[in-house]
Specification:
Length: 129
């Protein structure tokens, strides 16, 4: 069972990720001009316009975990599976990618996170009180 403390720790991790992404996207020039969606790199204006979507995803995650929303666990699992798949694609199609071996170990890592989130059974708020 996942308790409120663990959920809030994950929520804090999501909040820290928002801060990291915003700082990186606004103040690191060579990073701000590239975003990856579905494993494909977008650059320039499309990257700058889509970056806030990444911020919003993690902000919603932070809010959902912190407030112990039951829907956050399966949706976080779906997002982690999306990230796992995106890593495979990125490693195969990007010049900066490391090929199928790197894609597979990254898929395994994020896929394991997706499975853990999917199997997580949060305690009810009433039982935790």
């Amino acid at each position: 069972m996942i308790g409120p403390r663990q959920a809030r720790v994950v929520g804090l991790g999501c909040a820290a990720t928002v801060i990291f992404l915003i700082t990186r996207d606004l103040f690191v020039p060579h990073v701000r001009d590239t975003e990856v969606w579905f494993g494909f790199e977008f650059s320039g204006r499309s990257a700058q316009l889509s970056a806030p979507l990444h911020w919003a995803i993690f902000a919603v995650g932070a809010w959902g975990f912190w407030n112990l929303r039951p829907w956050i666990w399966p949706w976080a699992s779906v997002y982690a599976a999306y990230v796992a798949s995106s890593h495979v694609v990125w490693n195969l199609v990007s010049p900066a990618g490391g090929g199928w071996r790197d894609g597979l170990w990254q898929f395994a890592l994020f896929g394991a996170v997706a499975l853990l989130l999917l199997r997580a059974r949060p305690e009810s708020a009433e039982a935790a009180a």
